[in-house]
Fold this protein.
Amino acid sequence: MQETPIVCTLTEADYRDRETAWLKLRPFVRASMAVPGGLTFRFARVTGLQGSLTELVRLEGECCAWMSFSIADRLEAVELSITSNSAAGERGVREAFAPLTRG
């Protein structure tokens, strides 16, 4: 598999706005875990949360093609996995989304 270059096309201001949007979801994180390639989060089932996740994932796909996202609707939670296909990408995912993790 060919590695996708690790590049974010957001301006500094847009990056801060995006980070703020992700951090608004932090109170709903029920669990987080390292997985091969990145991280998985489990969010509380709250009205509107899945729509917010879906929109953020769509936006991330436009600026950070090196990340892959998967949203799963589970009975007990909404699960979001964020991964990359390289060691550098895995580190990037874990660093970028560290503020959301529960440790």
